Amino acid sequence: MNLKNVLLVATISLFVVMYAIGSILYPSFLSLDVFLNLFIDNSFLMVTAVGMTFAILSGGIDLSVGSVIGLTTMVSAHLLEKAHMNPFLVMAIVLVMGASFGTLMGMMIHFFKLHPFIVTLGGLFLARGLCYVISTDTINITNEVYSSIASFRFYLTETAFINVNVILFILITILGVYLAHYTKFGRTVYAIGGNEQSAILMGLPVGRTKVLIYTFSGFCSALSGIIFTFYMLSGYALHAKAMETDAIAAAVIGGTLLTGGYGYIIGTMFGVLILGTFQTLIMFQGTLSAWWTRIVYGVLVLIFCLFQQVFEANKGKIKLETQDEDKKDTGTGTKTEPATVDKGEPVSA
């Protein structure tokens, strides 16, 4: 098996095993209703995690996503219920707001050479604080368009259905895969995460891509906020609190390296489904506290971080073995030590 696929295969295998265990313990767990509910209940997390995955792939992180989701619900609720604005205009406004928020953070990271952790941590506090400026109370949404979208059901069987959340889950996954693997933007993201200095020397648009990464993450957070608004039909300052930790966990469990340069959107999707599956198992079990989900999340993240360390060590070893095999194939017969260049240092002639 190709080494670079090991983490992805491990993630998919874990999901299959967890779902199989659930099906053995609880026969109804195997029903189409339960499976589709994984997508319905975790659609906003998936949308958020796609944006987070791009940030981590580049070697950065976005801690502001949960707060931007909360701010989106508050702004949406306020504009709908207090200003009585057109609902489709409200959706457009909050999407632009989220993307602009991400753009601002991306520009600070690029132009001022600030660490993404610090910048997005500031964004976290700023967005959450703005929620309380709008209102400290819950704003219930009674708008007919939002209510209609929230109640939309497309039944596949008598009881199993999909809704707008599932459709957006699938669309954002397809978009993420396309951007990551079939565009210059995606290739540049991977290059930045692998070695930013090398990406610069290759003439790649590193600065522009960095800004676009956080713009996209902000857009995904705002879109997730819209989905969350459909899901809850309310705006509240504490909505999506700590959602950033779930998004990071989904990306890491999905096989995305925290050091950047490696990961798959499909892996992130299965990471989200793993988190959702365990939550469903807790619900079926009925006696365990919901806090057990956090304990298991922590254990899974630690385990996958250890896998990542093993992956990184073996990746370097296999690269050296491949170089030696290439030299034998060329018939040079000359043993030379592989040149090592400090990360970020250009090679002098």
Secondary structure elements and pairings:
Blueprint: H1 6-25, H2 32-41, H3 43-57, H4 65-81, H5 87-111, H6 116-134, E1 139-140, H7 144-151, E2 154-155, E3 161-162, H8 164-182, H9 184-194, H10 196-201, H11 206-232, E4 234-235, H12 243-253, H13 265-285, H14 291-330
Antiparallel strand pairs: 1-4, 2-3
Helix pairs in contact: 1-13, 2-13, 3-8, 3-9, 3-11, 3-12, 3-13, 4-5, 4-6, 4-11, 5-6, 5-11, 8-9, 9-11, 12-13, 12-14, 13-14
Q: Please write the string of helix (H) and strand (E) elements.
A: HHHHHHEHEEHHHHEHHH
Taking the alpha carbons of the first and last residues, their distance comes to 38 Å
Chain-averaged pLDDT: 90
Helix content: over 70%
Structural class by sheet pairing and helices: mainly alpha
Give the DSSP E fraction (strand runs of 2 or more residues): under 5%
The spatial strand order of the largest sheet comes to: 1-4
Rg (C-alpha, Å): 22 Å
Give the overall form.
Answer: globular
Largest sheet: 2 strands, antiparallel
Q: Enumerate how many helices there are, as a single number.
A: 14
Low-confidence stretches: 318-323, 332-349
